[in-house]
Specification:
Layout (H helix, E strand, L loop, with lengths): L3 E2 L10 H13 L9 H21 L6 E4 L2 H15 L4 E5 L4 H12 L4 E4 L9 H5 L6 E5 L13 H10 L3 E5 L11 H4 L3 E5 L10 E5 L25 H39 L3 E3 L10 E6 L4 H10 L2 E2 L15 H5 L4 H5 L1 E5 L6 H23 L1
Parallel strand pairs: 1-11, 3-4, 3-5, 5-6, 6-7
Antiparallel strand pairs: 2-8, 7-8, 9-10, 10-12
The structure holds pyridoxal-5'-phosphate.
Length: 381
């Protein structure tokens, strides 16, 4: 029986058209985009096309797209570059950011930078009043994710940007879990910087982008060559970038169909769990969220036991961010929502994708029901 993959927030399987684009690039576009000869020009055309496709997905100009090695680098470039550009004032971020943002902020704090971590409400959405509370001084930069990776909750980025502008601050959003799932437009959001990662939208791993609003003179973090308008030296990961561009083109063309499909499956799953298994709860906000993510608590259980049992039955789910999954600590995002350790340890994240179907959800529900009741009986006996 085929396995059921319900962990699309960790990564997505590359789309066959993406694989084909990358293969064609490796075979025919292997030149160096910086070379003047014909091989170089072929490679340069691939690079330009990909930049156009990425820009089109988020409503940016191609010149505003910087290719990076993924979401983590984009976040680092935004925060480190932004903090160099604005050397005075605090950096504000939320308590439920991905570690690519939170750990970078901690590192900047260790270097003496003032960092303020803002709380979220129990539904996983930024406490807007805490953001606007009279601060101790100027604000240099605000970083607020568009969609949370564990809960799928959408954050008030547009409103936060409006406020950040009144403070003269640079506004960054980590949109890694939003791009490809909902319509994202950099002009509508008003942000200065926006992070994207290819492998969350059926593209390859190790490639991403940072949108940098035209006019913002972000300093380079990598030196050594003229690539990416001198912002990121080094010969480009052209096959990855080509695949990323194709993934963005597909995401734009199929956005509505993909989100309706995921929403339908997610609702089917949540109804089945909440109505069919006692002591279950949905975490996050039921409305303000991306369509593919469900974070569910199973009272009295350690979700890791559930995950391992589901894995034996061929169902892949997660406890939260893949890069945190070795820590065996309560999920920090759920702790930030005010949950106890026991509550936070009892939650599973299931994230659907375009390859899932109703049969996957029905089988997952069946196996979940029997596994939860077996684990609960074991605890009682
Ligand atoms: C919200 C968010 N930001 C950043 C990242 C890091 O992206 P990448 O894996 O491309 O470095 C992730 C990956 O899980 C994420 O979910």
């Amino acid at each position: 029986m085929k396995g059921i993959y319900l962990d699309h927030n960790a990564t997505t399987p590359p789309h066959p058209a993406v694989v084909e684009e990358m293969r064609a690039c490796l075979e025919q576009g292997w030149g160096n985009p910086s070379s003047i000869h014909a091989h170089g020009q072929t490679a340069k055309r691939i690079l330009d096309l990909a930049r156009h496709r990425v820009a089109a997905l988020v409503g940016a100009e191609p010149e505003e797209i910087l290719f990076t090695s993924g979401g983590t680098e984009s976040d680092n470039q935004a925060l480190r570059g932004g903090s160099i550009l604005r050397p005075e004032g605090a950096i504000l971020t939320s308590a439920i950011e991905h570690s690519a943002v939170l750990d970078t902020c901690k590192n900047l704090a260790a270097q003496g930078r003032e960092v303020r971590i803002l709380p979220v409400a129990s539904n996983g959405i930024l406490d807007f009043d805490a953001l606007k509370a009279p601060s101790n001084g100027p604000v240099a930069l605000v970083s607020l994710m568009l969609a949370n990776n564990d809960l799928g909750t959408l954050q008030p980025v547009r409103e936060t940007t409006e406020w950040a502008k009144t403070q003269g601050a640079i506004m960054h959003t980590d949109a890694v879990q939003a791009v490809g799932k909902i319509a994202v437009d950099v002009r509508e959001l008003g942000v200065d910087l926006l992070s994207i990662s290819a492998h969350k939208l059926y593209g390859p791993k190790g490639v991403g982008a940072l949108f940098i609003r035209r006019g913002l003179q972000l300093p380079a973090l990598l030196h050594g060559g003229p690539q990416e308008r001198r912002l990121r030296a080094g010969t480009e990961n052209l096959p990855g970038i080509a695949g990323f561009g194709k993934a963005c083109e597909l995401a734009k063309a199929h956005l509505e169909r993909r989100s309706a499909h995921c929403r339908h499956l997610r609702d089917l799953l949540e109804r089945g769990v909440l109505e069919g298994i006692s002591g279950t709860r949905c975490n996050g906000d039921p409305k303000q969220r991306v369509p593919n993510t469900s974070n569910l608590s199973f009272e009295g259980l350690i979700a890791e036991d559930l995950l391992l049992n589901l894995d034996l039955d061929g169902i892949s789910v997660s406890l939260g961010a893949a890069c945190q999954s070795e820590s065996r600590k309560p999920n920090p995002v759920l702790k930030a929502l005010g949950q106890s350790d026991a509550e936070a340890l009892s939650s599973l994240r299931l994230s659907m994708g375009e390859g899932n179907d109703e049969d996957d959800i029905r089988r997952t529900l069946e196996i979940l029901k029997t596994t939860v009741s077996r684990l609960r009986q074991r605890i009682q006996s």
